[in-house]
Write a structure and sequence with these properties.
This protein has 394 residues and is of the alpha+beta class. The chain has helices at 4-7, 17-34, 38-44, 49-57, 76-88, 96-110, 113-125, 247-283, 295-323, 329-354, 364-372, 382-393, and strands at residues 130-133, 149-153, 163-174, 181-187, 197-203, 209-214, 225-236, 240-241, 285-286, 289-290. Strands 1-4-5-8 form a four-stranded mixed β-sheet, with helices on one face. Strands 2-3-7-6 form a four-stranded antiparallel β-sheet, with no helix packed on it. It has a two-stranded antiparallel ribbon with strand order 9-10. Helix 9 packs antiparallel against helix 10 (329-354) and helix 10 packs antiparallel against helix 11. The longest helix is centred in the last third of the chain and has 37 residues, at 247-283.
């Protein structure tokens, strides 16, 4: 019987001897260090810090960060393999890609030499965990409506030098309970809307930083998501990431990769779902024969398989574009919304084909279905993605 690797083999962007060797390392890490413990982490609501350090020891974090700052200095294709292997295993707790491929690139692209050397080596080792603070209770996709303030203070009352005093709140922050470094979006000039947003590097051990409750979600139970609070939190002026007032532009520049990451996870989850369902249908007996003998059942899974193959082909094209530095915002938005919507359709069909067993959390398809729902929301909702694509058309 065909396996996942033979039914959905790696294609051109990820198909070299070096990629195969790296994938074997990642897969072994997932099988030995993640899968046996994931159910406990779902009960705990987060993964242990030791897992991050172990991933760092194996060189699985911050892969695209230059070697001089502790990373592997390889291209994004290796990051894609890490995302795929975790998603194929249904391991949604260790959200390494947020840390390695969303937070770290902000430092690589906009950080000063001092900022890079302060944070990146520890992130690559898994000793420092990163998060990004953008969403607020009253402002999700509306960056201009954010209320968190970062007011510049200097003068004789600040003998330790100029600083930013931060007040506000963030919500739905992944890695919120564990993060040591937060790339924070805040208003440095509230009179200028989105043009008044800046990014700041916040050391979460500073006084004035507070973690709220770990939020209870529909899915992704092992991935900690939190409220964060800032009450007269002061960070030095050199914690500014890039230029003041450029935060919105910086966020927009980095979002295509974030959206591609969501698409990668979506397609990998679809591939596993089809395999799990195929195996269940072969084993499950109904009316004296395996369910896989029923034409209606066979055709429904064939459709799910076809949808998954089409998604993979489009994703591979996006990966090639991204590796060539040619993935535009509109195409990344299409990848994000189309793959995540298709992910949910395929997984929903697979749950249906599992019957009552598909509703039991002891089966991976049930957990994957619940985990998949947020893919259509975070990183930009489907509706926002379609609006961005529409702007290219009109």
């Amino acid at each position: 019987m065909t396996t996942l690797d033979t039914l959905y083999p790696p294609t051109a962007p990820l198909d070299t001897p070096e990629h195969h060797e790296f994938r074997a390392t990642v897969r072994r890490f997932v099988e030995e260090e993640v899968t046996p413990h994931h159910a406990q982490w779902e009960r705990d609501g987060q993964v242990p810090r030791e897992l991050w350090r172990r991933a760092g020891e194996l060189g699985l974090l911050c892969l695209t960060v230059p070697e001089e700052y502790g990373g592997a200095g390889v291209d994004f294709s290796y990051s894609a393999i890490v995302v795929e292997e975790l998603s194929r295993a249904g391991a949604t707790g260790p959200i390494f890609y947020l840390h390695s491929d969303i937070v770290a690139p902000y430092l690589v692209h906009y950080g000063t030499e001092a900022q890079k050397r302060q944070w990146l080596p520890g992130m690559a080792r898994g000793e420092i965990i990163g998060a990004i603070g953008m969403t607020e209770p009253g402002a999700g996709s509306d960056v201009a409506g954010m209320r968190t303030r970062a007011e510049r203070e200097d003068g004789p009352n600040h003998p330790e030098g100029p600083c930013y005093r931060i007040n506000g709140q963030k919500i739905f922050i992944s890695n919120g309970q564990l993060c040591d470094l937060l790339v924070l979006a805040a208003k440095t000039d509230p009179t200028r809307g989105a043009k008044g947003v800046s990014l700041l590097l916040v050391d979460t051990h500073l006084p004035g930083f507070g973690r709220g409750r770990r939020l209870e979600k529909m899915g992704m139970h092992a991935q900690d998501t939190s409220e964060l609070f800032f009450e007269d939190l002061r960070v030095p002026a050199d914690a500014l990431l890039g230029e003041e007032g450029r935060g919105f532009v910086q966020l927009m520049e980095q979002l295509p990769q974030e959206r591609l990451l969501v698409a990668i996870a979506a397609v990998a989850a679809m591939e596993s779902a089809v395999i799990w369902t195929r195996d269940h249908l072969v084993q499950r007996q109904a009316f004296g024969a395996p369910l896989s003998d029923k034409q209606t059942v066979r055709h429904r899974l064939a459709q799910a398989h076809a949808d998954t193959r089409v998604a993979r082909a489009f994703l591979d094209d996006c990966l090639k574009r991204h590796l060539a530095g040619a993935l535009d915002s509109a195409t990344a938005s299409i990848a994000k919304f189309w793959c995540s919507e298709m992910q949910f359709r395929v997984l929903d069909e697979c749950v249906q084909l599992f019957g009552g067993y598909g509703y039991m959390r002891e089966y991976p398809i049930a957990r994957a279905w619940a985990d998949a729902r947020v893919q259509r929301v975070y990183g930009g909702t489907t509706e926002i993605m379609k609006e961005l694509v529409a702007r290219e058309l009109f």
